[in-house]
Amino acid sequence: MTAETESARSAAHVTVGPPRAAADQVSTGGPPRRVRAAPPSFTASLVAVDCVAVLLAALLLTAEQRDSALLMQLTVGVAALNAHAGLYRPAAFAPSVLDELPALAGRAAVAWCAAAALVAAQAPHRAFGPVALTSAYALHLAVVTGCRAVLHRRRRRAARAHPRSALVVGPAAAAQRLAGTLARHPEYGIRPVGIVAVGPRPGPGGEEPPLPVLTTTEEIHRAVIQNGVGDAVFTGADGADGADGSNGTVPAAELVALFGRYGCAGWLVGAGRGSGTRSGAAMSRHLWGFSCRRLDLGVPAHRRTPPAKRILDIALAAPLLLLLAPLLLLCAASIRASDGPGVLFRQERVGQNGRLFTLLKFRTLRPADELEAATRWSVADDERMSAVGAFLRRTSLDELPQLWNVLRGDMSLVGPRPERPYFVAEFSRAHPGYAARHRMPVGLTGLAQVHGLRGDTSIEDRCRFDNHYIDHWSLWQDVCILLRTAASLIRPAGS
Asked: 182-222: per-residue pLDDT in tens?
């Protein structure tokens, strides 16, 4: 057993943030279950709304005027203009459709006028009359604003029901006040779980702070991983010292870099005149009266799943599940006959950006209790393992159900291997680069695994390989790793 795993086994499990509601807790009292992020279909829904709006508005034109070429030109034009203006990017705080109305109206007007001019130039007999053009434009705008209002309302409702965990950074007193404001107003979708104190801590004799105050990198590591922190909110109120001790508008470079490595979204709240924008839309970008703007935390470019990587996952995982169905049934039947009921083993693991998900495996042994399953390092020659379990683990067939995790989007075919929250917290403390492994989706196999770093091997080496893979990711490298993994199954060593 390595020194890293020995130290991880002996350490305590600490939860930094206050507990969530009982419905969000693991049955064993462990860390919160994964809260689903806003569905990736939000952008697709906005594009679909524009397409539907064009089609409905075209019904007001004559049959001769609404040919397929015109509809295609209008749809592409509206989508291109809206995409250029950022109207398809989901804002952190769901805006009111009134805030978007000027941008939507202007771009729709440009698209319809350009289409009308093009039709008049190419075929004057099909030219739009002013009444027809105005009516079609008005219907288009009404459909777009109505549908967007519904979508934004749904996002606000989801944000209130499932807020994102956040750490508030700044002078302890100011940060506690801001955290209290956010806790009282869940409509912004931010749930403070701790304070990262900058400057002197509150002196003795004061009231006990409502949230834990974090002052060390180790405490921040634990908070981010165990609470699934996705946002870092920096205080910058006028008249207060900033995170760098200057004018309250620039956070400390060390903290910015730290949260950037975790893939957190950064926000500067209370910067007042430092927000640097005079646009009308900025009026609505506030947190209960505190001015708010996005901070560039220098997040690595690959913190989100590259589309090509996700396409490869789906293209391979779906047919593999079908082709391997007989083998999966055979493995399940063997486990049932050898070890009794309970063929599948489910366990909480840490995925991309610290989010928790339920990993599936074939059961190879039965732990004594849930605590052992969550905190005991796997041993290849465990005496409790049956012959069937040992064979499945040695040949890595016990990992096959994770193809379902890949298809669901919890994992990728290639990426850092997922670990339990307990060990993620301990390895993050022992190895500063370990948390950066979660910038991309975890995987069935990875660069570390094809270099023999599987099972009870050096965590430091695996961490180094995983971060090198992320920093130099390419689709071809994923294909190469998959081919090398397939070749290694001829001489299996287990995982």
From this structure: 888 888 888 899 888 876 555 554 444 578 888 787 788 87
Q: Which of 263, 312, 265 is nearest to 411 (CA)?
A: 312
Report the percent of the chain where pLDDT is more than 70: 75
Burial class (CB in 10 A: 0-12, 13-18, 19+), 132: middle
Give percent helix, percent strand, percent coil of the chain, each to the nearest 5. Answer: 50, 10, 35
The whole-angstrom separation of Cα 161 and Cα 186 is 8
Residue 74 tokens, joined = 């209008």
Q: What is the β-pairing status of strands 290-295 and 265-269?
A: antiparallel
Q: Which two tokens stand for residue 255?
A: 């903290």
Q: State both tokens at 275.
A: 């927000």
CA-to-CA dists, residue 213 to 145, 209, 232, 246, 426, angstroms: 43, 8, 14, 22, 20
Instruction: Tell me the C-alpha distance between 18 and 281, whole Å.
Output: 34
Which residues have a Cβ under 8 Å from the Cβ of 307 and sit 6 or more positions away?
none
Say yes or no: domain 164-295 is CATH 3.30.300: no
- The answer to whether 61 touches 74, Cβ cutoff 8 Å, is no
Query: Domain segments of the chain: what residues?
Result: 41-159, 164-295, 307-488
Q: Hey, what's the torsion of the CAs at 40, 43, 44, 50, to 10 degrees?
A: 160
Distance CA 352, CA 415 (A): 10
| pTM, rounded to two decimals | 0.48
